[in-house]
Every structure is written in C-alpha cells, then in structure tokens.
Amino acid sequence: MKELNKIINKLDWKFIQEIYTQNNIIWDTFEDKIERIPKINDIKNELKHILEYMILNNTNYMMFDIFLIIYNNNIHSESNGDLIISIVKDIIHIQNINKLVDDITNNSTEDKINNLEAQKTYFINHEDYERAGFINKEIKKLKNE
After folding, report:
1. Do the Cβ atoms of 105 and 54 come closer than 8 Å?
2. pLDDT in tens, 53-90
3. Three-state DSSP string of the chain
4. Residues 90, 36: contact at Cβ < 8 Å?
5. CA-CA distance, 112 to 23, in Å (whole number)?
C-alpha cells in the first residue's frame, strides 16, 4: 500500500510533533520499557497500520491520539473512496464524531454498529480496553434506538 505512505508523508509532521510535545502525549513502549513522546516514525507506522485496517475492514472512522480518520468507501461511486485525516488538538466526544461521520457518509444504523464493532475489535486487540468499553456503550445505545 504505497499510496498510504504517500498520504502519510504529506502530513505536516513538524506540526504533529509539536502537538505531541505541547500536550505531553506519551506512549508506553514495550521496547524502551519507559513512557515517552513517540518518535515520528512510530506515529507514522501506527497510523499506516490503522489506515490499512480501516480500508481492509471498511471502517468508516476512527480516533487515534490526535487524529480523526474518516474513510468513506461508497461502493456506488467510481472512485476508490475518500480518506480524510484530520488533526485535532482537543478531545472530541464520540457523539460529536458520530454526528460528523453521519453527515459525511449517510450510514444506516446497521452500518454504524458494524463500524463501531470493527473499532472495538481493533482496540481490544491493542489492549485499549477503556476505549473498547466506551465504544461498546455506544453500540448498545444504537441497538436500543
């Protein structure tokens, strides 16, 4: 997926590093056994893995650290889909993200639930149980509508 590398490399990495530093966003790395602000290559690699996961699983959106990623793969369109990577400084409540994605993608409730299930699986696989639990609550709300 060379195209993903091109997309990732177009981001303003100096600005991204400043946001990580200013907001003291740290990662607990297994290699270093210490918490530290991630290196640019670490962020690029993780972002690439997330984008690959989203495309392969047709996931509409995901939050990752300071990134809001929206992937709109409209199967009725001749294009390969739209990919939006937005850098957000402030934490956005997931309901606001749901509204934004709904406005862009016009997904059915079933599509929203499938998208959230894919995100939950991703976060469970990466042992981010807090986010997975929060997403699970959102899934239950949608199922009760």
Report:
1. no
2. 887 887 777 877 778 787 766 544 444 556 777 776 55
3. CHHHHHHHHCCCHHHHHHHHHHCCCCEECCCCCCEECCCHHHHHHHHHHHHHHHHHCCCCEEEECCEEEEEECCCCCCCCCEEEEEECCCCCCHHHHHHHHHHHHCCCHHHHHHHHHHHHHHHHHCCCHHHHHHHHHHHHHHHHC
4. no
5. 31
Domain of residue 93, residue span? 2-144
CA–CA separation, 118 and 61 (whole Å): 10
In 10 A of CB 33, how many CB atoms?
7
1: how many CB neighbours lie within 10 A of its CB?
Answer: 11
% of the chain surpassing 90 pLDDT = 0
Instruction: For residues 74 and 82, give the distance between their C-alpha atoms in angstroms, rounded to a whole number.
Output: 8
As a whole number of angstroms, the distance between CA 58 and CA 34 comes to 34
Which class for 22: exposed (0-12), middle (13-18), buried (19 or more C-beta within 10 A)? exposed
Quote the distance between the C-alpha of residue 65 and its chain's center.
8
How many domains are there within the chain?
1
